[in-house]
Amino acid sequence: MHKEQQRQYNVFKADKQRHFNEQKLSTNMCCNHNLHDNDAITEKDLQPGNTAPFFRERIAGMQFFDPHVHMTSRTTDDYQAMADAGVVAIIEPAFWLGQPRTGVETFRDYYSSLIGWERFRSSQFGIKHYCTIGLNSREANNEALAEQVMELLPLFIYKEGVVGVGEIGFDDQTAAEEKYYRLQLDLAKEAGLPVQIHTPHRDKKRGTTRSMDIAIEQGLQPHMVIVDHNNEETVKEVLDRGFWAAFTIYPFTKMGNQRMVQIVKQYGTERIMINSAADWGISDPLAVPKTAALMKEQGISDVDIRLVTYQNAITAFGQSGQIDESDFASVKEIDQSQKFSGNTVLRGGQQPRINKDSLIIQ
Amino acid sequence: MYPYNVQKLVSLLTEIIKAQVDALVFDWLMQQPSFIDNVAHLNASFAAMPRKTGKAIIQLTQEQELAVQIIRPHFNINGWRMDRLCRVWLLLNLPSADEDRYIRTIENLFLAAEMHEQVALYSALPVLAYPEQWRKRCAEGIRSNIGDVLHSIMCHNPYPSEQLDNSAWNQMVLKAFFTEKPVHQIIGLDERANKELSRILSDYAHERWAAHRIVNPLLWRCVGAFIDENLYPDMERVAASENNLDREAAVLVCRKSSYLPARELLNKSVLLQSIKDDTSVSWEGIAQRAAAAV
């Protein structure tokens, strides 16, 4: 151990004992990779931390696809936790960022970031990032702006890795929302892209029915439409009419995962998929792997778990022609041409891990 | 408008594309220039390119690679994906007589570009019309944090060395070291070396040393011509490195230096004796071995 590190360690230790009279400091901070003569980062620094959450052993080896998660609002810690828990690919729908935009340029920059920076950021954690592009229902109510955004959308929906038009639909169920919902359905139909429908929090059952009615009126096939944020009250009609039923596992306001297990037991796995819709609110980017672990514990087969936490989403959004499962592996590949800190191979531009239990930051 | 024969390049690239895509895809691509006046159509064709052409790496014969270089020196399409090549091909078909419109159309593509589109756009800089009009755009690209985008500007791309002023050039070279790019693939690295850059890179090396981090030996290639009493202590330190590649870099610098103490260091330093007369030592060799050592 370096003298300076030893000194800081001693100071910290004494401090801690004086104030808290606790047991000695975790040995984690003496972890080897803090102690090299230079700070050469090695493959070891990429490995998951050794304190795995309790549920992870139940889903060891499983792969997950989260078809609705707003990574723009999440941290790098979330990306690492998701990768560690087996999430290999995600879809980030365009949505409301928490406050209304005031100009078309900020929409353009947002869409650009979904296909640019955020996709790149995700790849640094070995997670393949797709997105859906659309004008969300809340901001459809600013009609002057919505008109300009509609002109912008064709520039983005044909981009590589755009797997649908979304998330669109109803919030308040106003006339303006309906207008831009219909126009975007037309756009999706013309481009041959799936549609990701956000169903409203308030007056949900009626809003869901109406969303499907309008999709049919605009000439979309139910198999091209993923109806999101379902619950026990909406699922039957969605499945009976041939649409895909997505469930958002989101604390307090949407589904809990115990309820989700019951739904799979009752309705099976056909055209059902699970997502986290994690965003700027209190939400959980590990909702998909956690729900898989709970299903496993409660006797649902591995085959069925795979369908609702991975395969069905790929089948549905893969109708865009933009999802290639071999990309999930290649985003994790070791790129021998990439170097980090001078002399060490890391996987293609991947972020090195830090030891969060260490006092020393290198 | 174009400082090289653009028609010849378009014909050659057309031939390369034709041999490697399906007939239907090729027909689609050949139709695109007739709609190119319609900006919305151009935007859609440009964006949808990988959906049409696929993303396979193109195959080039040595003759083809050479033929490209004869038409446009240092322009290098080796290792490109087909969609990247076809996107650049599409840009080469844009009408360029109206300068404002031409620049506005391409700038608009930059503004909404995803990663692979950015890579295609930045790699097109050396073959676009009005080369002096893209300097700010190129400098903006160097501010990117996306590895592939930086790579497309820094490596095998003759535009920066031909067009950037010293401050943008220096920023690019420093960032190439900083982001661990294969700096030996920068076109014009030796020709554009300058005193200010050597000072910046020396400072950077000192920062790395202070943090107990490794310094890329190729850094001294850009510093060598400007060794003076201020930079000479750096050379002493590099010559005394336990890393062979550092010592080889010191030999290469000292051999060519016009600063007398640096030339004397070759004989003075015990550690340099075994390699000081070795004619096989080269910057390219250091770059290859540094890459292989990882």
Labels describing this entry:
heterodimer, A: 362 residues, TIM Barrel, 2 domains, 8-stranded parallel beta sheet, two-stranded antiparallel ribbon, 12% strand, globular, B: 294 residues, mainly alpha, 16 helices, 58% helix, elongated
What is the element layout, followed by pairings?
The complex is a heterodimer of chains A (362) and B (294).
Chain A: H1 3-20, E1 64-66, H2 76-84, E2 87-93, H3 104-115, H4 117-123, E3 128-133, H5 143-157, E4 162-169, H6 175-191, E5 195-198, H7 204-217, E6 225-227, H8 235-240, E7 244-248, H9 257-267, E8 272-275, H10 287-297, H11 302-317, H12 326-330, E9 339-340, E10 344-345
Parallel strand pairs in A: 1-2, 2-3, 3-4, 4-5, 5-6, 6-7, 7-8
Antiparallel strand pairs in A: 9-10
Chain B: H1 6-18, H2 23-31, H3 39-53, H4 62-71, H5 82-92, H6 99-111, H7 115-124, H8 135-142, H9 147-154, H10 159-163, H11 166-178, H12 195-210, H13 232-239, H14 244-256, H15 260-268, H16 283-292
